[in-house]
UniProtKB/TrEMBL annotation, chains A, B, C, D:
UniProt domain LOR/SDH bifunctional enzyme conserved: residue ranges: 5-103
SUPFAM superfamilies, sorted: DHS-like NAD/FAD-binding domain (SSF52467)
CDD domains found in the cross-reference section: SDH_N_domain
Protein name: Ornithine cyclodeaminase
Arginine dihydrolase ArgZ/ArgE-like C-terminal first subdomain domain boundaries: 104-193
Organism listed in the record: Halorussus gelatinilyticus
Keyword annotations of the record: Lyase, NAD, Nucleotide-binding
Top-level taxonomic group: Archaea
Catalytic activity, reaction form: L-ornithine = L-proline + NH4(+)
UniProt domain Arginine dihydrolase ArgZ/ArgE-like C-terminal second subdomain: residue ranges: 195-406
UniProt-listed Enzyme Commission number(s): 4.3.1.12
GO MF, any single term: nucleotide binding
Length: 414, 414, 414, 414
C-alpha cells in the first residue's frame, strides 16, 4: 500500500534546474512519480508549470521526499498555513524552526501568501499577525538567531512555506550568464571588465546603489586612487571594509606608503614599517577618521572621499586588527548588523580581494542581488559565488590592474 | 512561414542534464518546441524518452538549433546515413569533418548504427566499408589528425552521428557521485581515501586494469615507496610518467635522495644537488632502466618494481627534461601514441600530482573510464575533472600522505 | 666634513644575517664603515662580535643609518638611557613612540638594561620606574595601543633600546631548520610529520605547553576525532579557534555531520544542511558548551574533550559567524586579549588551516616561540612564516591526513 | 692532528650572501676558520676580499668543507689546473664529471683561467685544448649530456673550477631589487608594470634582444592583440611558445574565438568548440604558419606579426598537443636545442603564464640574464624565480590586463 501527494512546480523550472533536481530527488529516495500536467514556457521569459503525483511506500518516505522537493522549490498543490510557535526566551528559537534560504520566500498565513521581508540565509521567519486593533495587516520577516525575542511567533517546519529559486541566466547573454561554466583565470580580462563597467553604469542609471567590499590588497596593489575616484565620481555609494583597509588607505594619505612601501616608486622609505602603527595612533589622537579629515590630517584616499562625499562606510573589526581605529566596530554582532543594513540597500555589490568581509556581506544578501567578485585566488572566487546567487560575475584577476581599468572605463569612458 | 523537424532524446536524459540543456538551446536560439511524447524512467536505471517537434523561422536557424541539440545528445527521429569524404592527403582531413567528443558514439552507415571504436576527443571518424571481397563488415573508429592517411573515408558534418552523453551518478552513492558539487580541500580525507581504495579493489576484483599517472612530486613528497608497493602488490598495473619522475625515483634508489634531499631524514647530503644529474649519467652508461636493474644498479623504487613485475611504463619526454634517460620517448607524437595505447586498456586511471601527463592521458580517455585525480592544487583538480567524465573523483590533498594511506588500506586492509 | 659613530654587533651576527644586513644598510645609504674588531664565533653556539665606526656626510644621514642599523640589531657602543614620555590620554601614545618588533628587547633605564616583558610586535613599551616607596625595582613591558593609559611612561625614539634578532637554525638540523629554503608542497610528508611529532613530544617532555589554533577545515576534512584525541591524551593543552570551528565540531557530535555532510560515509543526510544552525540553537538553548556537555547533549569531539580535560579554549568571534554560540567572544579587542594570554603561555603553537586565527595568534607571539603551520594553500603558509620567527616549520599538506597521522605517531608511537 | 687549507672569497661577497654562507658551511661541518684578511668594499660597486684558513679534523672532512665552499663561490688560494677526462662513448660522461651551475664560471687550464662559454645549469664542461697546429687557443664550453661525443675532454671534480655567484641587487633600487622579499600578489601593480616597461625600453635602447615566452592563457585572457602589437612595434624580438599558444592565436585570427569563446564579446558562437581543431586542420592543409600567412589565411595575431616582422619563433611540442601544427618541433631534445639557441641570444626574457615553457627556457639561461616572470599563480612565480637569477622580477598578476598595460606604456608612452 502506497501513499501519494500532488506537488506543483512553477516558474523557471527548467532554467533553474528545478525540474531535473525534483525528478532526481524522487528517484534517489525510492519514490515514484506521474507527471499529470507539463506546460513548458517556450519563450525566454515564459514560465513553465508541472504538476505531478508523488508516490512512496510509507508516510515517512513520502515526508522525506516532500522535504527535499520543498528545498528545490516544489510545493504542495493544496498548501496549509504555516505552523507558528512562540520563542521561549530571548535568542532561543522554538525547536524545529524553519531555517531560511537566500531565495525569495513566501509564508502562508490565514490562507494568504505573505512575502518574507529581508530575505537572508540561515535565519528564522517571524510572523506579526497584525490585528490587535492596529491597522497593519500581517507581515513576515527574517530574524537572525541572536535577535529573537521571547514570544516572537516563529515559523516551524516547512509546511506553508514557498521558496522561489532564481533562474540561472541563460546562454551567452552578457557577463552575468558567463560564470556558469566555473571560475578560471583564463578569461578575456579586458572584455569582462568592460561588461562589469556596464553593469555598474546600468545600476546607477536605474537609480540603484553600489556597495564596494574592499580588502587591504586594494591599497597594497596600488588601486586605492582608482577606488577613491569611483567614490568621488559617484559610482560607488557605500563601502564595507575592515580596520586594516582603512589603516593602509590612511597611511597612504599620510605617508605615501602602504605597509611601509611606496606604491608609486616601489621604494621602502626608512622607518616605513612603522607608518601603519603611527597612522593608527594619529587617527586615535585626532578622534577618528572624520575628525582627521576635518583637521586636515587626511587629504585624499578612499576614506577621505567617503567622508567628503557622504558615502556611508562600515569598518568591521577582526582579531587581526592593529589599533583599532575609533571608527572600527569591534563587536562582531554589532558589525554584522551594520553590514546587514548596508547589504539590504545594495543593488550591486562589488567584492574586491577580501574573503572575510565578502562572506560576511554575502551572508546577508538575498539571491537576487547582483554580485561581482574579484580576487586573484580562484578558490576565493569559487567559494564566494557558490551561494546560489542568481546574478553573479566572478573574475580571477589582479585588483591592482582591475580597479584602475574599471575606473577608466566608467569615468573616462575608455 | 516556419520550418520544423522532429527530434528524439533517449536514455538518462534527465540525470545527464540532457533535457534541460536541449530545452535551453531551443529557447536561446529563438526556436519553439512542442513535446509530443515524454516518458520518464522513474527508476534509477530506467531510461526516459522524449520526442519533440522543433520549429524555427528559417532553415538556417533550424540547422543551428539542430547542431546544438546534436551536441547535447538529441538526434533526428529519421536519421540519414553519415556523409563520408576521402582524405585528400596524409594528415589532411576533408573540410567540415566531424570532430569527436569523448562520449560513446555511433555512426549510421548503410542504414545500420556502427559503434565508433576507440572513442577519444577531437578526432576524426574513419569508416571502413568492408566489402572488397573481405569477410569483415563495415567498421568505424577514431583517428587523430596526424594519423590520417590519404583516401581514408572520413565522416563530415553531424548527420548520421549519434552521441550518448553519460548520466551523472546520482545522489550520495559513493565517491564517484561525490564530486558533483565542485572541488574543495574541505572534504573528509580519510573517508574519501577509503572509498578510492574500494574502487581500486573493485576494479581489480573485476579483472580490470589500473593505470597510475605520476608526477615527480610523488617522489619528492616521500610517497615513492608506497607507489612501488602498489605496483609490487598488483594494485597498479601500468605507469604513465615523465623523465623527471623516473630520474627522481632512480635517484632515491641510488642515493636515497630526491633532488638532493633525503626523504627519510630530511638531510641534504653534501653534493646532493648533483645526484639527479649523476643518476641520469649512470643510467645512460648502463644502457637504460631495465639494464640498470639487471646490472644491480637499481634495487628498489617504482621503476624497479615496474621492471621486475612486468608492469608496462611509458616515460614521455618534455622540454623540461634533463638527460633524458634512454627510456624516455622524446617525440611528442610517438609518446602520445604510447599513452593512447595504455589509456585504452585502462579501466581505472589514478592521476597523481601531474597536470601535464594527466591532461595527456585524459585526452585519450573515453568519458566512460573511471578517473581518480589527486593534487594539492584545487585548480589542477578542477581542470582535470572538467572534461565530461562520467565517473571521476577529485581529491585535493597531499600525495605524500595520500599514497601511503591508500597502500595501507589496500595492502594491509587497514 | 663627516660625522661618525661607533656601533657594535653581538651574538649570532652571521647566522642571523645581521652582519650582512648591517653592511648593506651602510652601503645603501651612502655611508662608510671601518671594521675595528671582528671576532667570529667559530663554533655553532659561540657568539660573534663586531665593532665598526660608521661615517656619513652629515648628522641626518648618520641618524638614518643608525636607525636602520638598530632595526637589524646593531647598537651604539655607548648607549644612552631610553627616552620616556607620558601618554597624554588613554589609548593615545606620545608622538614618536617606539614601536616594538617581536624579538627579545631590552630598554636602558638608569644605566641598566631592563628586559622588556611580554614581547610582541607593534606595541609601545611602558616603563614602570619602581620607587615610590615600593620595593619593586623598575620594569619594562609592552602594551598594545588600546591598552595605553594616561600617564603611562612610554619609550620614544630608539635610543636606549636594544633588539636581539634570533639566529636562524643552521643547516640540516631537523625540521625547524628545514623551512629556510621556502615553502613548497613537494616535501617528504611522512618524515616531516614525524619530526613535528618529535617536537611536540619534546615540548611536552620539557613540561611545555602546546596550543592548537584550528580552523573549521579540521572538522570538514574529518580530522576532528584525531584532534580530540590529542587533547584527551594531553598533547594539546589549549585551543584557539572561532565560532565556526566549534559549531562544526558540535554538529559532528550531535548529528555526525559537518556542514551537513557525514564525514565518515560521505552521505549528505536529508535536512543535513540545517544541522549547523540547529546545533547553534541547541547550544544556545542549553546555555553554552560546558552546560551542553554537562547535560549530555554533547558526548564527544574536540570541544567535549577540552571541557572534560580542562583544556582552556578561546573562541574568537568574527563577522562571518552564525549564531554565535554563547561561548564566543564577539568583541575583537576582548578576544585579542584572551588570545594574547594564551599565546604568552604557549611553548609550541600548531596552526591548522586557519589564516585569520593564526595571524591573530601569531601577532601576539615573540619570535622565540616555536611555531608549526599547516595548510593546503602555500600562500597561507608563506604568509604565516614570514614574520621573523626563529623556530618555524611550515608544511603544505592536507589537515585531513596530517592530524590523524600526527595523532597516530604521538599516541600509538607509530 | 688537524689539516688546513687557505681559501679566498672575492667579489660581492657580502651582498651575494657568499660570506655568510661560507662561514655557516664551515661551522655546520664541524670545521674551524681563521680570517686572515678581510677587506670590505664599502661602496656599492666595490668588491670585497676575504682570505681565511679552514681547519678540519681529517682530510675527508676538509674535502667535504671545501666542496661546499666551492659551491658558494670560495676558491683555493693556490688553485690547480682542472682535471680532464675523455668521454668513453657518445652521450656518456666520465665518472665524477663536474656538473655546472648557471653562474659565470672559469676553468683553469695550463695555468690560465678560461671563461666557460654558454654557461647553463646541469651541463658538463668540455675543454678544447687548441694546439694541434690550429691557431685557436684553448677554450671551454658547456655541453648537455645528450650532446657529449666520445673523446670530448670533460672536466671532472671541482678543482680548478671557479664560480662567481652574482650579487643580489641591493635595497630599493628599482624592480629587479624588489623581488627579494618573496613573491606576493599584494604589490603595487601599475608601478611595477611601469618599471618592467622601463627595463624593456632600456634593453632595446642598449641594442638588446627581448624574448617573450608565452602560454595559451595570453590568448584566452584576451592579451593576444597587445602581444602582437609588441612584436609589431619591435619590443619583442623572439617568441618561445608551444603548439597550443599558436593554435589559439591562429584560431582567434580565423574565427575570432579562443577555444571557442569570442574574447571580445564573451559570446560562444555555435560550433565554437570545434574551431581549434578546424584551425589546426586548415594550417596543416596550408602547409604551415608561414604558408598560411602568405596565402592570406591568417591576417593578424601574434604568429602573423612574427612572420611578417621576421621575429623568430620556436614552437615546442608537448604530449598535450592537438594536431600538432607542422611548425611544432615534436622532439623534446630538438626543441630544447632550438630553445637553447634563442635563450643564449636573449638579454631580457619575459615569461607570460606558462610554467612548462618558462622552466625549459630558464634551464638554458645563465644567472646573468634579466628575467621578468608574470603569472596569476604565486607558486609558479616562486618556482621560476627560485633559480639563483641575479636579475629577476616576479609579478603575480593577470596577463589579460598586464600585457595590454605594458603595450600601452611602451608604445603609447602612457
Amino acid at each position: 500500500m502506497t501513499v501519494a501527494r500532488t506537488v506543483e512546480l512553477e516558474g523557471h523550472i527548467i532554467d533553474s534546474g528545478m525540474m531535473q533536481q525534483c525528478f532526481g530527488v524522487v528517484m534517489d529516495l525510492g519514490g515514484d512519480f506521474d507527471v499529470e500536467v507539463f506546460d513548458v514556457g517556450t519563450h525566454k521569459d515564459a514560465e513553465s508549470y508541472c504538476r505531478m503525483v508523488v508516490t512512496a511506500d510509507d508516510e515517512d518516505s513520502l515526508r522525506e521526499i516532500l522535504h527535499e522537493l520543498h528545498q528545490h522549490g516544489a510545493h504542495l498543490s493544496d498548501p496549509p498555513d504555516a505552523t507558528l510557535a512562540p520563542a521561549p526566551r530571548d535568542k532561543v528559537v522554538p525547536q524545529g524552526f524553519y531555517s531560511t534560504t537566500n531565495h525569495p520566500t513566501k509564508v502562508r498565513y490565514d490562507g494568504e501568501w505573505l512575502p518574507v521581508e529581508n530575505v537572508e540565509m540561515d535565519c528564522a521567519i517571524v510572523v506579526e499577525t497584525g490585528g490587535d486593533g492596529s491597522d497593519d495587516g500581517p507581515r513576515a520577516y527574517t530574524k537572525v538567531l541572536n535577535a529573537i525575542e521571547e514570544g516572537d511567533l516563529v515559523v516551524t517546519d516547512e509546511a506553508g512555506v514557498r521558496v522561489d529559486p532564481p533562474e540561472r541566466p541563460r546562454g551567452s547573454k552578457g557577463p552575468f550568464g558567463f560564470m556558469q561554466g566555473g571560475v578560471s583565470a583564463e578569461r578575456p580580462s579586458a572584455s569582462l571588465i568592460r561588461e562589469i563597467a556596464e553593469s555598474v553604469a546600468e545600476t546607477k542609471a536605474e537609480g540603484g546603489t553600489v556597495l564596494a567590499v574592499a580588502g587591504p590588497a586594494v591599497i597594497h596593489s596600488g588601486a586605492g586612487d582608482a577606488l577613491a575616484r569611483l567614490v568621488r565620481e559617484g559610482y560607488v555609494d557605500m563601502l564595507s571594509a575592515g580596520n586594516g583597509f582603512a589603516v593602509h588607505d590612511l597611511e597612504r594619505g599620510q605617508y605615501g606608503t602602504s605597509l611601509g612601501l611606496d606604491v608609486e616608486t616601489l621604494e621602502s622609505p626608512r622607518k616605513g614599517h612603522k607608518h601603519h602603527i603611527y597612522t593608527i595612533s594619529e587617527i586615535i589622537r585626532a578622534g577618528g577618521i572624520e575628525a582627521a579629515v576635518e583637521q586636515g590630517l587626511v587629504e585624499d584616499g578612499v576614506m577621505y572621499e567617503c567622508v567628503v562625499n557622504d558615502a556611508p562606510y562600515v569598518l568591521a573589526g577582526s582579531i587581526r586588527d592593529d589599533g583599532p581605529l575609533p571608527d572600527t566596530i569591534t563587536d562582531a554582532v554589532e558589525a554584522q548588523n551594520a553590514i546587514r543594513e548596508q547589504a539590504r540597500e545594495a543593488d550591486l555589490v562589488i567584492m574586491l580581494s577580501t574573503l572575510l568581509h565578502s562572506v560576511a556581506v554575502g551572508n546577508c544578501l538575498p539571491s537576487t542581488t547582483r554580485v561581482v567578485c574579484v580576487d586573484i585566488d580562484p578558490a576565493t572566487v569559487t567559494q564566494l559565488l557558490d551561494r546560489g546567487s542568481a546574478q553573479a560575475i566572478g573574475m580571477v584577476t589582479d585588483v591592482g590592474t582591475f580597479v584602475p581599468k574599471l575606473a577608466e572605463t566608467l569615468v573616462d569612458g575608455e
